Automatic annotation (TrEMBL):
Protein name as annotated: starch synthase
HAMAP family the record matches: Glycogen_synth (MF_00484)
Gene Ontology process terms (BP): amylopectin biosynthetic process; starch biosynthetic process
GO cellular component: amyloplast; chloroplast
Coiled-coil region(s): 517-554
Annotated organism of origin: Phoenix dactylifera
Lineage: Eukaryota, Viridiplantae, Streptophyta, Embryophyta, Tracheophyta
Pfam families for the chain: CBM53, Glyco_trans_1_4, Glyco_transf_5
Recorded name of the encoding gene: LOC103706113
Enzyme class: transferase
Disordered, as annotated region: 49-135, 352-380
Amino acid sequence: MEMALQPPKPLFCRMTLFGRTRFEIRPATESLLWCKEFKRVMAPIAASSEYSRRRPRRSSIPRTKGSPPRGFAPRPQVGTGIQKKDQSDVEAKEESENTSSSKYSLSSSEFNERKVAGEEQTTELDAGGIPGSAVKRRADILEEVEEESYGEDDKDQKTCTRMPSAAADNYETDGQRAEDEGDRVGLRKQHLSVLYSEKEIKEQEVTGVTDEVGRQMLERLAEGNFSSGNKVFVVPEVVKSDEVIEIFFNRSLSALMNEPDVLIKGAFNGWRWKFFTEKMHKTDLRGDWWSCQLYVPKEAYKIDFVFFNSANIYENNDSKDFSLLVEGEMDELAFEDILLEVKRRELEKLAAEEAERERQDEEQRRREAEKAANEADKAQAKVEVQKKREALHRVMKLAKPVDDVWHIEPSVFKGGDMVRLYYNRSSCPLAHATEIWIHGGHNNWIHGLSIAERLLRSDKKDGDWWYAEVAVPDHALVLDWVFANGPPQKANIYDNNNSQDFHATVPNCMLEDLFWVEEEHRIYRKLQEERKLKEEAVRKKAEKTARLKAETKERTMKMFLLSQKHIVYTEPLDVRAGSMVTVFYNPSNTVLSGKPEVWFRCSFNRWTHHNGPLPPQKMVHAHNGSHVKVTEREDGGIYDNKNGMDYHIPVSGGILKEPATHIVHIAVEMAPIAKVGGLGDVVTSLSRAVQDLGHNVDIILPKYDCMNLSNVKDFHFHQSFGWGGTEVKVWFGKVEGLSVYFLEPHNGMFSVGCIYGRNDGDRFGFFCHAALEFLFQSGSCPDILHCHDWSSAPVAWLFKEHYRHDGLSNARVVFTIHNLEYGVHHIGKAMTHADKATTVSPTYSKEVSGNPAISPHLFKFHGILNGIDLDIWDPFNDNFIPVSYTSENVVEGKKAAKEALQQRFGLRKSDLPLVGIITRLTVQKGIHLIKHAIGRTLDRNGQVVLLGSAPDPRIQNDFVNLANQVHSSHADRVRLCLTYDEPLSHLIYAGADFILVPSLFEPCGLTQLIAMRYGSIPVVRKTGGLCDTVFDVDNDKQRAHAQDLEPNGFSFDGADPSGLDYALNRAISAWFDGREWFNSLCKRVMEQDWSWNRPALEYMELYHIARK
């Protein structure tokens, strides 16, 4: 079945809001001049003969340029008069809107600084109140405002006509308002000159003076409203957006009857848009009528206002405020979209500012690092020069010719000269050599071998002399050489002066100090070049790593969307705000299977969109035959809500981002600072993955005295509080980029030298209660409290019993079972009180569903796979393997790793299938199957490497005996390393062809996930998380495809040797018989994402449902 659906689009985008915005500076005169335009049906109204001497009315267009006002609230009432709404109510209202309207609002402190009653005043005007002495200035301002509204990309779209809307408003500053009559007339004329000639202005003034009919009608309006007791009326009577209106106020009927000054202040759309303040002026209408003009922006659907005396006496319509409805395209829902757009732009601006700050900070760090590196290079160059200088001085003491062995002619020479070096072969190791060569250098071989010449026989008679013509290097202080029976790389007999080499000083050499200065610079430049090459290599590698991560995350998101395709999906798959999508639903896989009708209900933003849920729609059969789509409306019936999780589809391109969720993990382990088992890895890795999605994550942990604090950054004392009869110190630090709070009670509960094993129930119970008390006393308001296993299970019921209605009411509790073998009583109690509960794989959740601690709570129990940390287990950035590799060069990388592994253990360096086993040696891990697999692999002419130890001494001794036996019988094909070695585990994962995991039960298992990350093929027993992650290449194709995966390993069902043989034999045969296929399988498993990318998305879904 299918349906068509249109997600809300960003209504306040440039094309829809500003694409047709046009600007015009309108004349702002007395109300009579505008009556024809304001109310088309009215006859022309004559103006008073005193029109030209009256002060022009001024409209208010709130600001978009200059210093943004901050919003205002009226002062409390003093004296007589009716006070504006309660001060705190107004402040709260305006504070709530500060984000969206702060750009256009005016603070009360700013307002109170204004001067009224004849003094200089500050108001915000429409274009009709433009002050100044030159039209050019106003035109320039208009251009600036217009450019600001359009943005750089839209400047070519703008035109200039009609009154400017929200974009062009801040034409007048507080100090520019003119006060005397002459100035006001001048301002009016200057303003009119923007669009009208002087002649046109005079003609309009004459028209206003003679429009007596219009004046009489206005008088009738005033008299009628006064007779009815109305304090306020407006012209035109129908208020429309994007027009100027005139508001009339009768002072004598109000609390301001005795006040000399009357001002109006207000805003639009329920006091949420563009605050304004304007001084009103006495009219010449009969009665005490005052008026002012006001521009109504296109975004307005309502005007809210009050009157006051510029101080603290208000007329606010008996605390109900005055309001006018505005006719136009805007309504309350559409205005909400505008506010969202304003919010989005503010967030974009903040994000851009933050990005710029980060860029500047990064640039500063780069400069500081560059400076530090340069200083380090200089220091290293000095050290190297000093060492070389000392070594050269030792050599120079040996640089004396031996008359019967060697000498140089001429005896005085300099760099660049050719000299003849003589050698007497007769009494040396080369006495019987057929040819003699000199291998030489200079300055204690500072540049290595630089001289290689064959010696010729000399005609000297006093010995067996040979000689060679040698060019002295320019910067040589000392010549260094040996004699040999052949050229470099081919000689095998040397005369090296009894291992001291031969040396000769250069008599007329360059100054030694100058040489060492140059040498120091040369070394410094070399170090700089080497460092830059390394930095460039690191940068390129980091860029590739980031790209690979991004590609993996994108693939995983797509798979996450497709994972429910057998039930529900959309076309297109990537849903964008503002576009039409079709929703397809297959009821045959749900509780609605077989129902004659299917209806669809939905909303947006997790049911929080201001438009609310859409009306239910009936679905019709789609063309694919299995799905249905939506048509019309009906309520009621049975719901398929994904077992309480609801169906969710991400939407991109919208105005808003999903609000961040605040998650607090309360746990007793955290890698790498307090890790005993897999719990510590999960707490750290899950927290990092959720934080990378843009959410706020904190961790609360006991401060053990055995904790490794070297991995905690910015560790410092945070606060202390009293609870449980003792003081609890709270420390703070960053671990793997996560905020961690460490609780240290003075009662010494966590100063026992270990994490587990010392009255754990009491210690961890105290910790759980102290963690909740810390959150309560610190005023924290988390959305989710996530506790783990029996050790922090008390959080669930302590929260519900003591804190749910006492300061932490917003929180919901999520409880995760990592292993049901320990603390079942605590786990059952936590299951009762938790809002949602999980375990570490879907299959394990089914396997334990019959446990009495879990079975009553299956409605809130979910299985979510664990993941692996890609920063730790990454063959492309692994320092423990010889060659970095990705799926692109997996064959070469694994070949190098296998050779290194064989060499380390003394195994035969041959191309044989290698089975790796990395495990704790316990009954759970299937030790009887491990023993059988070792023998079976050897029978199949394979190699085996085992890494692991047993906590049970009997099992450990049993494997020691097995190791002695197989090392003796198959020394070149098997090695059992009965300990745990983290670096070695990396090499085994990379060097093995297969990784064996024959566990009898396995809640999740990370070994098989790490194996695939390194391109090793898992051979596993089909249980728990092993079943959920390994899909047999022969038997699980359909099951894999249902998860949008390809088969990735070998598996077996039974717990006996024959079941293991079935999987292991197929794996080894595939290696021997189909190497090309096997290599493609290695590449395939490397490209599958078993990180925390998808589990983090699933946990966020769970968190949202827990809060629903």
